[in-house]
Structures are given as structure tokens and as C-alpha cells.
Amino acid sequence: MKKLKILICDDDQDNLDVLQILLEMEGYIVVKEDQSSKLISTINSEQPDLLLLDIWMPEICGDEIIKIIRSDSSINGLPIIAFSASLDIEKISKKAGANQYISKPYDINEITRLIINVLGNKL
């Protein structure tokens, strides 16, 4: 069975490192990107199976990135789970076009459940 690749975009290096360790322990290949301005290029080069995206990013906000992804026919099918400490994460992520969302602080079991739910038939 192919290992699935998850791309994580967050400007907080500690958060990237923790998520990488936890998701690799779950058997996923993890790619990290800490600059939202480079994310589309990273998506095109890495071709991930799923994107975990922080909504509050410098340079380009996560909801704007989701809109860019959804308007690009070559990558618009990429499953996206948005995350944020914002109280409006549900509204923001749904409006932008994310498949799912999770609030910070989050639980690894909840992230794993969302990943399984979003990836479904790829597992």
C-alpha cells in the first residue's frame, strides 16, 4: 500500500515539527512549508494527498490560499483541512472551500480522524 503524503503549512516551526513527528508515527509521509507564498509551488512539486493549512499566516492568509487552490484546475481536487485558534474557523474554512477544519489547540486523535475521513478511499 502506498504511503500517503501530507503537506503541512504553518508559520510556527514548533507546530510543524510536532505535527510532523505525530503524523509520521501514524505512517504518513510529511512535507512541511512555513511560507504561505511558496505553498502553491510546494503543492505542485510535492503533489501531496492532503494539505493541513493554518488559516492565520503572514504574507498570504490560509483562506486566500484555499481560494487560489480551488480556482486552479490542476490542484483544485486537493483535500484541505484548515486549522486555527480563531473562533470563526468553521465559518472561514467553509467559506474558503476547505474539506474540514479543526480548532487549535487540537488533539492528534482528532486530526487523525479528520484525515481518515477526508482521505477515505485513498487509504
Question: What features would you describe in this structure?
Answer:
By secondary structure, this protein is an alpha/beta fold. The chain has a single domain (5-117), classed as Response regulator (Rossmann fold), CATH 3.40.50. Helix content is 41%, strand content 20%. The protein has helices at 13-25, 39-46, 62-70, 89-96, 108-119, and strands spanning 5-9, 29-33, 50-54, 80-84, 100-103. It has a five-stranded parallel sheet, sandwiched between helices. Helix 3 runs parallel beside helix 4.
Which structural traits does this protein have?
5 helices, 5-stranded parallel β-sheet, globular, 20% strand, alpha/beta
Q: Any idea of the CATH class?
A: Alpha Beta
Average pLDDT over all residues: 92
Number of strands: 5
Q: Proportion of β residues?
A: 15-25%
According to CATH, what is the topology? Rossmann fold
The CATH superfamily appears as Response regulator
End-to-end span in angstroms? 8 Å
Spatial arrangement of strands, main beta sheet: 2-1-3-4-5
What's this model, at a glance?
This protein is of the alpha/beta class. It has helices at residues 13-25, 39-46, 62-70, 89-96, 108-119; strands spanning 5-9, 29-33, 50-54, 80-84, 100-103.
Task: Please outline the helices and strands.
Elements (H helix, E strand, L loop, with lengths): L4 E5 L3 H13 L3 E5 L5 H8 L3 E5 L7 H9 L9 E5 L4 H8 L3 E4 L4 H12 L4
Parallel strand pairs: 1-2, 1-3, 3-4, 4-5
